[in-house]
Amino acid sequence: MPPSDTSKRPTQAEAEQAVRTLLRWAGDNPDREGLHDTPARVARAYTDFFCGYEIDPAALLRRTFSEVEGYDEIVLLRDIRFESHCEHHLAPIIGRAHVAYLPRQRVVGISKLARVVDAYAKRLQIQERLTAQIANTINDELEPHGVAVIIESSHECMTTRGVHKPGVSMVTSTMLGVFRENSDTRRELMAMLNRPAACEF
Ligand SMILES: [Zn+2]
């Protein structure tokens, strides 16, 4: 995804004006007291919702550790909660990502995997691309034996509008390397994913 051309980026005042237009489009009066600061708040919220455009996900994975005592089994980080927005309706996508890789000598700090998830989630997304981007970035940077990314999420554009189907979750996965080619490795991953959590914090 090409980063946006910041030279053409609108000013905060232009962003606030656009929110005023949407408030009027919704049928309300942006000048009434309760809405007075809403355009500024929405503009600030957007910088939070979409902060992923400012982050280079690949750079997060450049610091690796090789003193792993020969560890050569699956590393799995599961239940990484994320918040994203669908690019079709700007509606929230709330979900959990499970990220696994089979290291080839080098491992990465586990918080970095969660940061890669956030760097792509905090952009306008569709879930299929989010899943593939996380997997491809880990694959390119760590060059492991394999990467697996599984995402389960709820799309508010489906629960609060359109077909109005709450309780529906969407599941996507990208399997690369041994996770794609070797059914034993994939089965081992699924067993790890289905194991009850050993600790709840
Ligand atoms: Zn949508």
TrEMBL record:
Q: Name its pathway.
A: Cofactor biosynthesis; 7,8-dihydroneopterin triphosphate biosynthesis; 7,8-dihydroneopterin triphosphate from GTP: step 1/1
Can you supply one Gene Ontology CC term for this chain's record? cytoplasm
Top enzyme category: hydrolase
Entry's family note: Belongs to the GTP cyclohydrolase I family.
Assembly and partners are described as:
Toroid-shaped homodecamer, composed of two pentamers of five dimers. Homopolymer.
Matches recorded under HAMAP family:
FolE
Could you identify this protein by its name?
GTP cyclohydrolase 1
Give the species this sequence originates from.
Answer: Acetobacter ascendens
